[in-house]
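Complex 426.
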Amino acid sequence: MKKVVSPVQSLNGSIKVPGDKSISHRAVMFGAIANGKTTIEGFLPGADCLSTISCFRKLGVQIERSGDEVTVYGNGWEGLKEPDEILDVGNSGTTTRLMLGVLGTRPFHSVVIGDESIGKRPMARVTDPLKAMGAKIDGRGEGNYTPLAVRGGETKGITYESPVASAQVKSAILLAGLQSKGLTSVTEPFKSRDHTERMLTAFGVELKEDNTTVSVRGLQTLKAQHVLVPGDISSAAFFLVAGAIVKNSSITLTNVGMNETRTGIIDVLNRMGAHLQINNSKVVNEEKIADLTISTSKLSSIEIGGEIIPRLIDEIPVIAVLATQANGTTVIKDAEELKVKETNRIDTVVSQLKKLGANIEATEDGMMIHGPTKLTGGKVSSFGDHRIGMAMAIAGSVASEEVEISDVEAIDVSYPNFFDHLSELI
Ligand code: S3P
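Predicted structure with shikimate-3-phosphate bound:
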């Protein structure tokens, strides 16, 4: 499906940001392995999180959904049954990797498959440590690519040093660790998002955190909870950037999750000189939330690298759009992980923004953007990557002519009402 975005005069108004994708996935999965009835409010009904619901239903868990309210009837670890059907994760890396952590310890056979993009994403970062714990997993490239066949069983704890700062890797190993004998601990080079640690604690699990190491003792059970999902800062990011770069704009985003492992975009906006206000800060379910107001800003370039990268990894496509409107050269480095996201986001961001006249170049571990540039119209593609599609729509709103974006249906993965929200602000 194609969508044409026309240049806008201004963007004004208030938007309630849809539920956080990472937290929605975890609420369903933890509810499924907990004992009792877990209720979820503010669930993101995006395609990725619906894949998690569908997979856990195939594993025998009763899950009801009405809009953004979900009820999960967990029967503990033993409630998971050998699925009759293949578990299809669609486009969702989080479903794949976290679910592998669960399946790796269950005494049955299952097959995990996903779409074309999932088939290219590296899974050995999860299957290797799970195999070291005793899980049997096979697939193309010695268990690196889907389809993956899993036969779980008796597993033992592991002390694992992850070469990448990845919440999916950390979470998969911790989930397996919960079902394994002994202690499991994961250390990562920089701290990745910690929603798993926070939500497991809320579900009654004891875990220990020390700097970038998290440890759990095995054979723990989870108690059902009520989970209130905050808005997704990664979705808010598109409108934060739009508010800063479209002239005569002021946008308020309510209900935004402000977990410090996710707020790299806020730091970037502040460092670039954006007019950003944070109001009504509070804590719900161990997670900080706030309302954010952004208005048209004069921006300066910055360098982005090191420990901040995992705190804004999903926001880099739209940060690149932001940088095209900033004065000077913005350098994004230490971001090789972009190459193994839904697309190779170094390639897709650079090639598509170039089509709109941006002065941008790819580097080995990121990109350099020279600004400010008046973006032009043109034809671009999302390449089936939701965040590329939305970044292009924001670029289109400051371009001089229309921007035609193909494959926009990919946006349903994380923000099904994205274009409705954009229209409401015009
Ligand atoms: C996620 C972790 C990140 C992020 C992804 C969601 C999660 O991936 O990019 O969109 O929910 O744990 P990595 O763990 O691969 O960095």
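The mean pLDDT is 98.
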